[in-house]
Specification:
Blueprint lengths: L8 E10 L4 H15 L2 E9 L8 E2 L4 E2 L2 E2 L2 H4 L1 H17 L7 E4 L5 H10 L3 E4 L5 H15 L13 H13 L2 E4 L2 H9 L7 E3 L23 E5 L8 H10 L2 H4 L1 E5 L4 H6 L1 H4 L4 E3 L6 H6 L3 E4 L8 H9 L2 E5 L13 E3 L4 H13 L1 H14 L5 H36 L1
Parallel strand pairs: 1-2, 1-6, 2-3, 6-7, 7-8, 8-9, 10-11, 10-13, 11-12, 13-14, 14-15
Antiparallel strand pairs: 4-5
Length: 411
C-alpha cells in the first residue's frame, strides 16, 4: 500500500562506518535505495567509507575531514554511545524539520528519548532477531558442539548489550523487522505486533546478475556457502548434510568466509573431505555465485540472509533455513528447512543433485523474482513504512488531543 504524502524528511542515524562491510554495507545500500525512492535524507553516520547518492545530506558524528575518532580505541559500545549523544543534541536543533528518525541498535538510546520528547516518530532497525533470543540460541548451540566463543565475540553473551537494546526496543515507535522469523522472536518476547513493521533488504542487480552462458546439466553439483563461518550460520549442519548426500561423491562444496579457529578445529574431519574447499575471505562472491548451482545458508538465527537475495539475483538456487528470509519460497524459488534439520537439508541437496530439471525451474523462478527484491524495491517498501508510521502517530496524537478536549469540557 502506498501512502500519498509530501517528500518525507528523514534523519537516518547509523553509528558505524557507512559503506564498510556487513551491516555497514546494508545501511549504505539502504540509504541509496531510500534516496532512489524519493526520501529527503539527512544521514548522521559515525564515519563514511564510501559516498552515497548525491541527493543525500551526510553529516558524520565521529569524523571530520580526514580526522576520525578511532573505534578500536573507544570500543564499539562507547563509540556508539558517543554517536548517539551527538545525534540527540543535533535533532534538538532540528525540531519541526524532521518527519521521522531511523536509528540503529546500540547507538539509539538518547536519540530515541529526545525524539519522544520532541514528538518525532522513530523506527529502530533490527538487522538481527531479538538480541536476547539470538545470544541465547547461539550459546546453547556452542555448548552442544563444545565450541567456546571468545569473550569479545559479537555473539558471545553480553548482559550489558541485551539490557541496552531492550531499552531501545521499548522506546522506538516501531521496530523494523526484515523477516517473519525476526517478527516472531519479538512476539515470543511479548512485544505487540503493532510495534513490529515489516520491510526487506535487497540486492544490487548491477553486481549480482546471472551468467550469460548456459549451464551443463550433466556437471557435478556445486554448492556454495558465503559468510562468516560461525556457529550461528550453521556451517556444521551444511557440512554434515553435504557429506551424507551422494552429491559429495563427485560434486564440490565451496566455503567462502573466515572461520573462528575453535570452530574450524571442531569441524576439521569434515573440512578435510576431498569434496570440500575452504576458500577463506573472498572478494569475488558474485562470480562464485554465478558459477555455483546452489547456495546453502542453514543459520540458527538471522535478521535477514542477505546472501540469499544476492544468490537469487545470480541464478544460484538458495537452500536456507527458516531463520533466513521468506523471500526464498519453498519449492518455488528455493528450498527451505527447519533450523537444525540436517535430514531435510540432506534430502534437499540430494534432490537437486538428482533432479536437474527441478534445479533449473527453481533457478528460473529465482531470476523472475529478483527484480522485486532489489535495493530500490527495498527502499520503496521502507519509505512506505515511514509514511504509515507517521500517519499512525498523527492519528494517535489527534485522538489523544480529542480526549483531552472532551475531558476539559466534562470538567
Amino acid at each position: 500500500m502506498h501512502f500519498k504524502y509530501d517528500r518525507v524528511r528523514v534523519v537516518y542515524s547509523f553509528p558505524h562506518k557507512l559503506g564498510a562491510e556487513r551491516i555497514c554495507y546494508t545501511a549504505w545500500q539502504q540509504v541509496n535505495g531510500l534516496a532512489d525512492a524519493g526520501a529527503d535524507l539527512l544521514v548522521f553516520p559515525g564515519a563514511v567509507k564510501r559516498p552515497v547518492a548525491g541527493s543525500v545530506k551526510v553529516r558524520p558524528t565521529l569524523a571530520r575531514g580526514k580526522f576520525r575518532i578511532p573505534y578500536r580505541l573507544l570500543g564499539s559500545m562507547r563509540a556508539a554511545a558517543l554517536h548517539d549523544h551527538i545525534v540527540a543534541r543535533r535533532i534538538e536543533k532540528l525540531a519541526g524539520q524532521i518527519d521521522i528518525i531511523h536509528a540503529w541498535p546500540l547507538g539509539a538510546l538518547e536519540t530515541l528519548k529526545t525524539a519522544a520528547k520532541l514528538g518525532i516518530p522513530t523506527v529502530l532497525e533490527r538487522c538481527n532477531a531479538h538480541t536476547g533470543f539470538a545470544l541465547e540460541v547461539v550459546k546453547k548451540e556452542c555448548e552442544r558442539l563444545g565450541v567456546a566463543l571468545p569473550p569479545n565475540h559479537e555473539h558471545a553473551y553480553n548482559a550489558e548489550k541485551v539490557q541496552k537494546e531492550e531499552a531501545e526496543y521499548k522506546l522506538a515507535t516501531r521496530l523494523l523487522c526484515p523477516s517473519e522469523f525476526t517478527v516472531q522472536t519479538f512476539l515470543d518476547k511479548g512485544y505487540p505486533r503493532t510495534q513490529l513493521a515489516r520491510h526487506i533488504y535487497g540486492y544490487d542487480e548491477k553486481v549480482y546478475y546471472p551468467a550469460s552462458e548456459p549451464r551443463d546439466p550433466q556437471r557435478p553439483l556445486r554448492m556454495l556457502f558465503v559468510g562468516v563461518c560461525a556457529v550461528r550460520k550453521g556451517v556444521h549442519f551444511a557440512l554434515e548434510a553435504w557429506l551424507r548426500s551422494p552429491a559429495s561423491r563427485e560434486g564440490t562444496f565451496l566455503i567462502a568466509g573466515e572461520f573462528l579457529p575453535a570452530y574450524a578445529e571442531k569441524l576439521a574431519p569434515m573440512l578435510a573431505h576431498p569434496s570440500v574447499r575452504v576458500l577463506g575471505h573472498r572478494n569475488d562472491i558474485p562470480d562464485l555465485m554465478r558459477s555455483s548451482d546452489i547456495l546453502v545458508l542453514p543459520s540458527i538465527e538471522e535478521g535477514f540472509g542477505l546472501v540469499v537475495t544476492e544468490a537469487m539475483g545470480c541464478g544460484c538456487v538458495p537452500l536456507a533455513s527458516e531463520a533466513c528470509t521468506e523471500l526464498c519460497r519453498h519449492m518455488e524459488t528455493g528450498l527451505m528447512h527447519r533450523v537444525g534439520d540436517v535430514d531435510a537439508l540432506t534430502e534437499h541437496i540430494t534432490l537437486l543433485h538428482q533432479d536437474r530439471a527441478l534445479l533449473e525451474r527453481l533457478r528460473a523462478a529465482s531470476l523472475r523474482t529478483a527484480p522485486e527484491i532489489t535495493w530500490r524495491a527495498a527502499g520503496e517498501r521502507l519509505l512506505d513504512v515511514y509514511r504509515e508510521t507517521i500517519a499512525t502517530e498523527a492519528r494517535v496524537k489527534s485522538r489523544a488531543a480529542g480526549m483531552d478536549r472532551e475531558s476539559v469540557l466534562i470538567h
